[in-house]
Design a protein that fits this description.
Blueprint: H1 3-23, H2 30-55, H3 59-90
């Protein structure tokens, strides 16, 4: 079995497991779990940067590392925006005197 087919199996099984787990999460726990996912995306960003730096002249690894870095960065920024928006909902509004 080649590395590519093994990687596809891992992707498929991980996606199915993720869908099953996310479907059972109540809405009140969604934001704290999203913060945890942002931490994981930060780790993914470090791994992608390492892959890009080590790839050197290997163009396929450079492309895969750049794509994974883009997705991880998008997830981190989106998570911070959602968390900021959620915290703004709970902040006290200024009252006029």
């Amino acid at each position: 079995m080649s590395f590519f087919s093994e990687a596809l199996w891992v992707l498929l099984l991980g996606s199915l497991l993720g869908l099953e787990l996310i479907g059972k999460v109540p809405p009140t726990l969604h934001t704290p779990l999203m913060s945890g996912a942002n931490a994981i995306s930060g780790i993914t960003m470090l791994a992608a940067l390492t892959l890009i730096i080590k790839s050197g002249d290997n163009l396929p690894l450079l492309i895969i590392g750049s794509i994974s870095l883009g997705f991880a960065l998008f997830n981190v920024i989106g998570g911070f925006l959602v968390t900021d928006r959620m915290l703004a909902m709970f902040s006290r509004k200024k009252t006029r005197k």
